[in-house]
Amino acid sequence: DAGITQSPRHKVTETGTPVTLRCHQTENHRYMYWYRQDPGHGLRLIHYSYGVKDTDKGEVSDGYSVSRSKTEDFLLTLESATSSQTSVYFCAISDGGGHNSPLHFGNGTRLTVT
Amino acid sequence: DQQVKQNSPSLSVQEGRISILNCDYTNSMFDYFLWYKKYPAEGPTFLISISSIKDKNEDGRFTVFLNKSAKHLSLHIVPSQPGDSAVYFCAASDHTGNQFYFGTGTSLTVIP
């Protein structure tokens, strides 16, 4: 299994509070991704990173920011959580930027915004 | 707008029979396709992939077929086993490889 650790695994927070999810990898892979999984939508890309301090938006990036100060860590921040951000969040890594290099996923963080 | 579509939310198959999961895509720039398997409370696990230069790729009981003209791919599982019961996602990326687009998933149940 790819060495990917997501923390926390579960979190309940209130609307309007900031939340940070952490993804840590031990594979030294260049690419890291944040996805959310919702019923009827599958997995949708929030943000991704192609190197330290290099990030870009995915298809559902509004309301989220990311940071990558070290190769091994990729943080996802909800500046002011809303109920629509209740979801399961998955971090993924890839060593080749995706082309002919599959993503490997962590076990997810279940976030509930009340 | 969903660029990768899995139109069957669920599928039930008898143990030992073939399972066929289907996936359609709309973006002709996609050239790398993957299948993932997901159990509850776990992350998706990579199963098998195919590049657009091929029309078939096989790995044990799993075979992926790609029909570029129809923008269609399928995953065949033969023979199906109860442990194959899971949600299956197809995914695709273009030549940049920076983004992967996923379908909504098909829940497969293999009946013993």
Tally the beta strands of chain B. 11
Q: List the uncertain runs of chain B.
A: none
Rg of chain B, Å, rounded: 13 Å
Percentage of helical residues of chain A? under 10%
- Global geometry of chain B: globular
Structure classification of chain A: mainly beta
Helix and strand arrangement:
The complex is a heterodimer of chains A (114) and B (112).
Chain A: E1 4-7, E2 10-13, E3 19-25, E4 31-38, E5 42-51, E6 54-57, E7 64-70, E8 73-78, E9 87-94, E10 104-105, E11 109-113
Parallel strand pairs in A: 2-11
Antiparallel strand pairs in A: 1-3, 3-8, 4-5, 4-9, 5-6, 7-8, 9-10, 9-11
Chain B: E1 4-5, E2 10-14, E3 19-25, E4 30-38, E5 45-51, E6 56-59, E7 62-67, E8 72-77, E9 86-94, E10 100-102, E11 106-111
Parallel strand pairs in B: 2-11
Antiparallel strand pairs in B: 1-3, 3-8, 4-5, 4-9, 6-7, 7-8, 9-10, 9-11
Q: What can you see in these coordinates?
A:
The complex is a heterodimer of chains A (114) and B (112). Chain A is built from no helices and eleven strands. By secondary structure, chain A is an all-beta fold. In chain A, strands 2, 4, 5, 6, 9, 10 and 11 form a seven-stranded mixed β-sheet that branches. A four-stranded antiparallel β-sheet of chain A has the order 1-3-8-7, with no helix packed on it. The mean pLDDT of chain A is 93. In chain B, strands 2, 4, 5, 9, 10 and 11 form a six-stranded mixed β-sheet that branches. Chain B is globular and about 40 Å long. Helix content of chain B is 0%, strand content 57%. With 112 residues, chain B is mainly beta. Classes of the chains: A mainly beta (114), B mainly beta (112).
